[in-house]
Please model this.
Amino acid sequence: MSLPQAHGQISLFTLPESFVWLQHFSAEEIAEFFTELFDALNQSEQDRDWSLVTEVIESWKETANVKTDPIVTNGVQQGMAELAEGQGVSWTKLREELGL
Model:
């Protein structure tokens, strides 16, 4: 899989099979992923703790899984639309209602 076009540029970089899930993202999202990944690599090298790299990859991988599930995607889009219309419940109010 090659990366899609972003800002008029096309990448011929072929991703390894273990990153095939990136195909579910736009070119801009893939650029954001690599920015986060490189930042995590840099920080992990300084800290000598590579868990941040794993966290970034797993987070994006889970997002790709959500994007491939039409029921979940529809629910997220509906929720975002409701929030944009001023509907929904704030986290503060929800915590109060749940006694958290």
